[in-house]
Specification:
This protein is mostly helical. The longest helix has about 40 residues, at about 275-310. The chain has helices at about 15-45, 50-85, 90-120, 120-125, 135-145, 150-160, 165-190, 195-220, 235-270, 275-310, 315-350, 355-370, 370-385, 390-415, 425-455. Helix 1 runs antiparallel to helix 8 (about 195-220), helix 4 (about 120-125) packs across helix 5 and helix 6 (about 150-160) packs antiparallel against helix 7 (about 165-190).
Length: about 450
Amino acid sequence: MQKSRNYDLGKDGLWFLVLSLALPTALGQAVNVLYAIVDRMYIGHIAGYGDIALAGVGVASPIATFLSSFATLIGMGGAPIMAMREGHGDHEIAERILTTGFYLLLAVSVILTPLFFIFRDPILMTFGASDVTLPYASSYLGWYVLGTPFALLSTGLNSFVINQGMSKKGMLSVLAGAVMNIILDPVFIFLFDMGVQGAAIATVISQLVSMLIAIAALKGKNTAIKLRFSGFMPNQIGKIIKFGLSSFIIISTDSLLLVVLNAMLQKYGGPGWGDMLITCSTIVQSYHILVTYPMGGMTAGCQGLVSYNFGAGYTERVRKSINNLQILITGYTIIMFIFTIFGSELFASLFSSDNEILELSAHYMLIFESMIIPLSFQYVNVDMMTALGQIRISLPLSLTRKITFFLSSLILPMIFGASSAFFSEPISDLLACAVGTIIVRLSLTKILERRKKEGFHI
């Protein structure tokens, strides 16, 4: 382990490492939620049209998140490989994998930006926008798409920062951007009277700040694995995509499934009531990412720990790290479930002052989050299998939850009406937990024993 690292991933105490790596990253992701929900808070309180504008942004936001999920494909695909190579002593290859990830993020940005900008209106109308909400949705998404390179580079490169054990620097990148967003939102939305468009512009500027800080961290004097801008490895592209695919599926399909949810609410809710349900769904989704992003942060923060020790052959440390992480995340979801029971309407009041919207949102929020404790096992199962390079396990586990949600959100509204679509989340969470936990617990021992016998290879 190089001296420039913040922690010795192979020797320091595991509870110390899990807490030191998971908590700052979780806090960083909690702050990252502000990118999404601060916009919505301000927009929902715009005099005269806030609730309708909020529904428009609610339709656009999952599509924007889908775009950002490509950063996960590359960042969480390349970063564990980088950490494994460093743990195995292949320092030069580790740096070249980082460089490869950087250029892949740039390439994806160049492809996605014009594609989604040109076709944004047809996409929005297909997935939940109405004639009333389309102008707000299109304005928000159009400006957001123009900042896609900043969004992808800031998020993707942050994975390479975190997987070197630099969770605090990763948190700083996210925190700086979120604080900038909080400051700029009211300036652009209210002072400059730019409304929804101003909220998107504030987000783009904030993501630019986060990107610059992430690059500075990877170029820093005391950084172990540096971004060099040379040494691109085409033969690693397939491996990076393979490693990042399950995490990409989690985030991208979460976004796409929320798009489907909005479409079903609009279709079966009909004129007026459909827009009302999407406004409530936007508030529910805002709370959901407040719950799930920190969970993803905890698992992302500990991926480097698990990958490094697996690469180094410290299999017992791998097992204990995963168990400690599960205890931590389960405790977190218990706390959030209690808050969901007692604080749902308080949270909804941050987005609207309409009493009907507040009551409905609180009700749907409790339904949507009723299985967040089992969901904690799904996050650990998938991300830790990814950290071990076991894509053949993590990918099907991701798909199990997504397919269940998709089918539930299609079938339930057809039988029980539009609002029953909110039950799709707890049904899929519970099933994924049961299936995933059984499979992972049966597989982990075999994976670690094989690592002892056969040595390291990816």
